[in-house]
């Protein structure tokens, strides 16, 4: 069985770290709910659009594997989801890129924007 080290910043997943400072982006960040839960395969995320508009959310994180040297770059990962008002979707931020090695999820950020 694969062992996992979680270094996930649950706060940024749970509360939405919007990268944009526009008024529309802040409003979207306030009405998109992201709930996280640690599981055997990674960080399970339920993204729920409680806004009155369609949204596009991008989740980004990096994965480091056991045995990586200090020169080994983290593996960037991302998922994109589009949600209509009132819809939700389950996503998984995983460390599957490491195979059976211990892995760590870091540098997690999510951003949701209104789609037009």
State the main characteristics.
116 residues; disordered N terminus; 7 strands; Immunoglobulin-like; 2 helices; signal; four-stranded mixed β-sheet
Q: Write the element-wise H/E pattern from the N-terminal end onward.
A: EHHEEEEEE
Q: How would you state the average pLDDT, rounded?
A: 78
Quote the CATH topology.
Immunoglobulin-like
Q: Determine Rg (CA atoms, Å).
A: 15 Å
Number of strand segments: 7
CATH class bucket: Mainly Beta
> Reading side by side through the largest sheet, how are the strands ordered?
1-7-4-5
- Number of structural units classed as domains: 1
Q: How much strand content do the residues show?
A: over 45%
Low-confidence stretches: 1-23
Biggest pleated-sheet summary: 4 strands, mixed
Helix content: 10-25%
Give the helix tally.
2
Q: Report the span from N to C terminus.
A: 45 Å
Quick gist of this model?
The protein is mainly β and 116 residues long.
Write a structural description:
This protein has 116 residues and is mainly beta. It has a single domain (4-114), classed as Immunoglobulin-like, CATH 2.60.40. The protein has 2 helices and 7 strands; from the N terminus they run E-H-H-E-E-E-E-E-E. It has helices at 10-15, 23-31; strands at residues 4-6, 32-38, 42-49, 55-65, 75-83, 88-94, 103-114. A hairpin with a 3-residue loop joins strand 2 and strand 3 (42-49). The N and C termini lie far apart (45 Å).
